[in-house]
């Protein structure tokens, strides 16, 4: 029950932080959009003079190229913001207090375990994921699954999170992979906005 409260607090804090970041990103995007709109207005004034001299096809081509350049600039700014947001998120996750980190890892393990017989591989410098934590996860694994998770003696070059291995099958549950998946989803949304 307390784990749920802590998890809910972590999620609530993460959502609040995400909302702050999203608001900041929207403000920055609005400022960039205003700047781009001003540039576009200046460009339109210049192209009006050109329109009197050039054929309609040439003008349409020039406008389309300019819109594409401006769209690329806006996308580059959004990606820059995303880089900053995900860099901050990665740091915050890495710097979670030990008890919150262990609760997060426990939740991720419970969601990722398929058979309950996997080995847990951690990073070379990981000290917060230990056999004691894995024993607690074993106690919480739902009925119908064996509870024989073990900490592997093998270490990998990973930072935060873990890899579950069952035979030749590996499930990567590192913070980098989780954040990259979230980023891909956001980038898809950005691409939809662009086109």
Polypeptide structure, described:
By secondary structure, the protein is α+β, with helices and mostly antiparallel strands. The chain folds into two domains: 2-95; 98-179, hypothetical protein PF0899 fold (2-Layer Sandwich), CATH 3.30.2320. It has five helices and four strands. The protein has helices at residues 2-53, 56-94, 98-112, 131-140, 175-194, and strands at 119-123, 150-156, 161-166, 169-174. Strands 2-1-3-4 form a four-stranded mixed sheet. β1, α4 (131-140) and β2 (150-156) form a beta-alpha-beta unit. α1 (2-53) crosses α3. The mean pLDDT is 81.
How are the secondary structure elements laid out?
Layout lengths: L1 H52 L2 H39 L3 H15 L6 E5 L7 H10 L9 E7 L4 E6 L2 E6 H20 L1
Parallel strand pairs: 1-2
Antiparallel strand pairs: 1-3, 3-4
Brief write-up:
Helices cover 70% and strands 12% of the residues. It is α+β, with helices and mostly antiparallel strands and 195 residues long.
Reported for the largest beta sheet, the result is: 4 strands, mixed
Shape field:
elongated
Please give the alpha-carbon distance between the first and last residues: 46 Å
SSE order, one letter for each helix or strand: HHHEHEEEH
H/I helix tally? 5
- Which range best describes the helical content: under 10%, 10-25%, 25-40%, 40-55%, 55-70% or over 70%? 55-70%
Question: Which descriptors would you attach to this protein?
Answer:
alpha+beta, hypothetical protein PF0899 fold, 4 strands
